[in-house]
Input
Amino acid sequence: MYATARRSNTGFFIAGFLLLFAVLTFFPFYYVIVASFSDANLIREGHILLLPQGFTPGAYKMILANDRFIHCFYMSVLRTALGLVINLTLQCLVAYPLSRKYLPGRRYFMMYIIFAMLFNGGIIPTYLIVKGTGLLDTIFALVIPGAVSTWNVILLRSFFENIPESLEESAKMDGANDMYIFIRIILPLSMPVMMTIGLFIAVYHWNAFMDAVIYITSSKFQVLQIFLRDMVVYLEKAALLGDGTMSPDVSSISLRSAAILTSTIPIIIVYPFIQKYFIKGVMIGAIKG
Amino acid sequence: MDLAVKYKYLYFMLIPGVVWYFIYKYLPLYGLVIAFKEYNFSLGMLGSPWVGLKHFRFLFTFPDFYSILRNTLIINFYNLVFGFPAPIIIALLLNEIYNTTFKRTIQTVIYFPHFLSWVILGGIIIQLLGPNEGLVNQIIKYFGGEPVNFLTRSEYFRGIIVGTNILKEAGWGAIIYLAALSGIDTEQYEAAIIDGANRWQKLIYITLPGIMNTIVVMLILRVGYLLDVGFEQIYVLYNSTVYDVGDVLSTYIYRIGIQGMRFSLTTAIGLFQSVIGFILIILTNKIARKFSEVSMW
Output
């Protein structure tokens, strides 16, 4: 970077604009944090919500005690864990053989999966197939239909291809078969890529919403996003399953905000890792290619 | 067959994936045929009777279809005009910042909304714009104005959709362009300074040409999605009072198809979407090839 200590007006402008955009982006989040700790009645009376009005953690107590919330939270965790395992496993199982350049028919397999990436049947036909395979209204409907992302497979394949052939050759000379090589040699070396892809799969599943809307009808498998939709979007207190025991100093807005915030905690926890693994990866990839 | 035996483990590993693709990618592709059939539950995909172009003829004479199509195109057009340049501008601005701490802090903040679901972000927006307790209206009331129920007003809805989409995605979208910017040769900048170029000239003659390839590719990809306005955002933020401007193809397919169970009709719409999207990508690619040196193929 060329060093010039100019304090030009444009420089100020640029920084200011970026700051404004960042503030605008962050503000809705700040608002929710403030609202979740505020006293509902004060909000109703019209006090402006820029700082917590009447600091109270009551909303959180209510939310964390709510059965349905806990259940849906658990469902999201289950779905994310299941999705992580199934997606990663399936994608690696496809990517590894295709990374072996000597595999006969490799080209045709690649065309098979790339064609599927470019053309798909759409919401309705996929829905009918999901229905037909008996997955409807089970947790597997959230995990199986989207299990393999061709994009990820290609990424994984590139990574596997870049692992030095000598490792495989010497292992083969020692009598190892492909499965052994894959599990004992390739996988341990692939940890960085796995972490990155894994993080994104996890975040995807945590946030996924449309598939739950379409495929899940009974309340048994409803994920957190559905709970939030009922509560925050439908504005229905029914989401809390008919509680007449609403504490008087906690209103819907605080309650909703507490629910939103609690649902975001996993993302917040995972965010620094995403920064560390992915963003660096993108930048490195850019410089290389 | 010797080969199959030799590589049996590898082929074995491929089996789950191949089966998966067949069931969940290729079978639905075949399922598109019900766009030309009258799908009947008990008869299934294979047994339902053919009706040819009946559904397409229906769509093209159905007035609601045009308003939905129009909404989809208009929202996407606004997204293109405002939403497409936003990440580019942000990347360009960030590129001008020398203070790494400031730069990194800003980036951390603006990347974050991308990782929230639309249920969460939309929920927050709904609260902010609420008619009584929402902050925006509280401020309006404070200054003596009348509260406005923004989310039920057709005139505001599209703006809300496009604006919040930018807030959510523009930061993250800048990453691609930041990566492209880092690939520009710094020697060019140094030569430019020696020649006395100012900020604007550097931008026009070095920076923009340097990332033009990336911009074109992203644009081509974007155009392919022209008929595909995101379901989740609209679903969360819309309500029946703004159907006239907010109902798009994807939400309509959901309401009429999944909830209304009119499978054949909505499959026809989906097919229509895909075909048009495909044609658009090819067209844009052709145009791109004429005007710049790069295209997708």
Observations:
- The two ends of chain A are 21 Å apart (CA to CA).
- Chain A has 13 helices and no strands.
- Residues 236-251, 285-289 of chain A have pLDDT under 50 and may be disordered.
- Chain A touches chain B through 92 residues (CB under 8 Å).
